[in-house]
Each structure stands twice: as C-alpha cells, then as structure tokens.
Specification:
Blueprint lengths: L2 E5 L2 E4 L9 E3 L14 H8 L5 E12 L6 E8 L5 E2 L11 E10 L4 H14 L15 H17 L5 H5 L17 H8 L11 E10 L2 H7 L5 E8 L2 H22 L11 E2 L3 H36 L3 E8 L1 E10 L2 E10 L2 E2 L18 E4 L7 E5 L9 E2 L9 H7 L2 H10 L3 E3 L3 H6 L8 H10 L4 E13 L1
Parallel strand pairs: 3-4, 18-19
Antiparallel strand pairs: 1-2, 2-3, 4-5, 5-13, 6-10, 7-9, 7-11, 8-9, 8-19, 12-13, 14-17, 15-16, 16-19
Helix pairs in contact: 2-8, 3-8, 5-7, 7-8
The protein binds one DNA strand through α7.
Length: 472
DNA sequence: ATGTTC
C-alpha cells in the first residue's frame, strides 16, 4: 500500500484498479497502521470503489481494521448519482456514541463522596453481555415509540428534562425512522436492553476537566477546569447488531440485481434510492433512536445516584454518535449535493455557525466527544470551518491489538490494581472484559487528537481525566 | 460491537 504525504498529517492512497476516488489518511507517520498487523488501509482503498463515492475514501487518525469499512472511516456517496448506502459503513453497533454530563461538583470535593458514588453507580448501571436494563419494555408499541422518537420519547415519559434534547445531535431523534423495517428478531433482542451499557469498550466514567485548551468554547459548552463530569459510551446493543446482520444479508442478495461489484463481500450495499437502501436507512434511524434513548435512560440512572450522594445534578453537555450514515448537503466542487455520509468510528464535528446547531452552541461549534482508552484521558473537541472529510473527526484512541492479544498482556485483576493505585476507582463487569480493554491495546488518544487538530479536522477544547470507571 | 457461530 503506497502512501504519498501530500500535506502535513495527510497521506494519499493513489487511485488504481476499480477505485473511483483516492484514499486519504489523516495521520502522523507513527499513527499509520502497521500493514503487517492491520489491513485497514486496504479497506480504505476498497471503500473507494463504492458506486457514487465523492471526494475520497477518508481515514481518521484512529483508523483500524473493521467489518468491510475500516473503523475510523468516512465515505460520502452522491444520492442523486446512484450513490450507495452500506451497513458495513455504519458498523454493527449502529449509533454507538458518547454523551458528556457536567456535574456541579469540583474535583477537590470528590474524594469524600467518591466511594459512595462509585458503589451507587455500580449498582445502578446495568452492563455486561445480556444482563438487565434500566427500562423493561413489555409491548412492541412502546418499543416502536422508542424507535421513532429516541430521547424525545424518553424525556416525554419523564426520563430527563427538555433541555437535554437541545444538547443531543438531531435534538434527540433521527427523522425517517420506521419500526416496520426492523425485524421481529431485532425487536426481541432490543426489548430488554434500553438503559444498559453492554460490554467491550463501553463504559460510564466519572471524570474531571484536567486542562482547558480553549476557554471561550469550553465556557460555551458549560465546562471549566476542575469540574467533575460523567461520560457515557454505549450504543444500540443487540437491536442494532441484528439490523446490521439483516441488511447485510439482504444486500448481498440484491447487489447482483443492481449490477454492483465490490472487492469485499463485507461491503454489501444498495443504492440509497432503492427499496433496500431506503429500508436500511429507516431501520438504521430506528436503531439510532434506540441508542439515544439508551444513553438518556443511563443518564437518568446516573442522575439519581448523583442526587442521592452529592445532592447535585448533571447537565448534559452533548450527545453525539460515531457510527452512523446521514443524508447531508455538502458543497462538492462548488456544487451543493445531497450526500449519504457514512461515519464509522468517526464523529460529526459541525463548524461554528452551522444551521443545525442550537443557537447557544452556534458561535462555538459542535462538541465532538472523544473517549480515550481505559485509564487514559478523553477529549472534547469542536468543529472548524472549511474542514475536509465532510465535517468529521476521530472517535477515540483506536485499537492496535485484538481483544485476544490484549488478554495475553495483562490480567484483569492486575489492571484493576494498577488503575486503583493511580487513583482511578474501578467497577468492572468481568475480569476478562477489563483485560481486553487494557490501554496497551490502544493508540495514545492524545496523539490521535493532536493529529486530528493538526490535519485541520477539529480543534481541542478540553482534556478530561478519569477518576472512576464503571466498565461494561 | 454482538444471546462473542442461525
């Protein structure tokens, strides 16, 4: 795989064979995946063959290997020129994302309540494979309401306050969700999981603002140095997973009919403007709403514990997905075009002044929330004007070693002891799950966000450090 | 990521 450095932190994969556009990798030399261990750059090139793709097949600095598309990939297709949508370009965990809450508590006041807080959260936050949820929905009609209206429905039912919705991407619910496009099996899997973290890299952390990079923007986001925060990272659980599985199968069948050939069957896709494309987007939107309701219910669970232990509240800073396809209008070669922007392990980062931002965030830009690996920093970023890659940036640290490799480097018990010795309280779900998430298996998130900023994708606003982790 | 292989 030949990479040409065409600008600082920007490498090009030249067009060849059936690639319709070049690949563009935003990275430092150190962050470029090792070709011997990770085939994600080959995946960047594969994505460039998709019908209707415009600009380039992009990779963020945290890129690593994924299903079909790389994780940390951005690809936009032209809806009105036969552009396709691909479930693998969104990922199995549809609308997996991050929510940040700001507590009215200073980190100096945390130690005296920390153990009570962590024990409360340990009991209140359902997590791990299967294993319970805050909200148990008994009938399909109620789940359909979640699928149609996401956080809006949760707030309507008393799980949150209207202001929360102003701080959610899409004001808490994606339009055009259609529960009828969601299979019965997906519904069955999702019924008992609204308000649960799941497993893998999902977590709820108690954090503190450790450094503010941009005072003005941080203030607009409601953040100041020393402030205690809560970060929630989770997705659409079994429901989103089943929807992805269902539509990959459907599109594997319809691709020959549509005359679409792809270099990897995991790139199964259909024209956005086709029955299958529309059905997938409607089901994907339903899963996106499910994921938002999931984060809203976990927010309420955390709020109950904070109220009981500290007497204080948690204000929503923002909630943003990093696994989603969206129909957006962007200017391409001087012309406004309707694009299907796939962001898989990539975060939308709207620039200041964007019309989709609520009025009070508009001068600052959209918060992009970047969780680090366990025990390391997380970041709040904001969008910048004129950025490449359709207003997208990185989504996290990015894996460098598989889960299995990770478990060979450390035992969960030892990792917990190490984190506790560094002042980070740990409430895990399983020892194995903890070991799989050792920071040794990830890139350095600080390097990732520095490169993302250097590449002109975003600006850093604040760095958060973990004080307690409730691990999925 | 995931009832970690319908």
């Amino acid at each position: 795989m030949e990479l040409v450095e065409e600008a600082p932190y920007r490498f090009r994969i030249e067009r060849r064979d059936t690639m319709r556009v070049p690949g563009v990798v935003f990275a430092s030399r150190a962050l470029i995946p090792d070709v011997g261990e990770d085939r994600s750059l080959e995946q960047v090139a594969n994505v460039a063959t998709l019908p209707g793709i415009v600009g380039a097949s992009y990779a963020m600095p945290d890129v690593h290997w994924g299903y079909g598309f790389p994780i940390g990939g951005v690809a936009a297709t032209d809806v009105d020129a036969g552009g396709v949508v691909s479930p693998g370009g969104v990922g199995f965990d549809i609308s997996c994302g991050v929510r940040l809450l700001a507590a009215d508590l200073h980190r100096d006041d945390l130690p005296r309540v920390r153990e009570a807080l962590m024990d409360g959260l340990d009991a209140a936050i359902p997590r791990g494979m299967g294993r319970g949820s805050v909200w148990h929905l008994t009938d399909r009609a109620e789940l359909d309401a979640v699928l149609r209206a996401g956080s809006r429905y949760a707030v309507e039912r008393g799980h949150g306050v209207p202001r929360d919705l102003d701080r959610c991407e899409d004001y808490g619910a994606v339009g055009d969700a259609d529960p009828a496009q969601v299979s019965d099996r997906a519904v069955q899997r999702g019924q008992g999981q609204v308000g649960s973290l799941g497993s893998g890299n999902h977590f709820l952390e108690v954090q503190a603002v450790d450094e503010v990079h941009d005072e003005r923007v941080a203030a607009a986001f409601g953040l100041r140095a020393g402030q205690v925060c809560v970060m929630i990272h989770c997705g659409s659980r079994g429901l989103g997973h089943q929807i992805c599985t269902d539509y990959v199968r459907t599109m594997e069948r319809t691709m020959p009919r549509d005359g679409i050939q792809v270099p990897d069957r995991q790139l199964a896709c259909a024209p956005v403007d086709s029955a299958e494309g529309r059905a997938y987007l409607a089901a994907m939107a339903a899963a996106a709403n499910y994921a938002r309701a999931n984060r809203q219910l976990l927010t309420e669970a955390a709020r109950r514990i904070f109220a009981r232990v500290t007497g204080g509240g948690l204000d929503l800073v923002y909630d943003v997905s990093h696994n989603l396809a969206k129909i957006e209008t962007h200017r391409v070669d001087g012309v406004e075009r309707r694009l299907c922007v796939h962001r898989k392990g990539a975060t939308r980062a709207l620039p200041p002044g964007h019309a989709d931002l609520p009025a009070d965030l508009c001068p600052a830009g959209q918060p992009a929330l970047i969780p680090g690996s366990m025990g390391t920093a997380s970041y709040v970023l904001t969008g910048v004007a004129g950025a490449p890659a359709f207003a997208s940036t990185c989504h996290g640290a990015g894996r460098t070693r598989s889960r299995k490799q990770a478990t060979k480097t450390v035992r969960g018990q030892d990792l917990r002891r190490e984190l506790e010795s560094r002042g980070i309280a740990v409430r895990g779900a399983s020892w194995r799950g903890l070991a799989e998430e050792t920071p040794e298996a990830y890139k350095d998130v600080t390097e990732v966000v520095e490169v993302a900023e250097g590449a002109g994708l975003c600006r850093r606003v604040a760095r958060l450090v973990p004080l307690g982790v409730v691990k999925g």
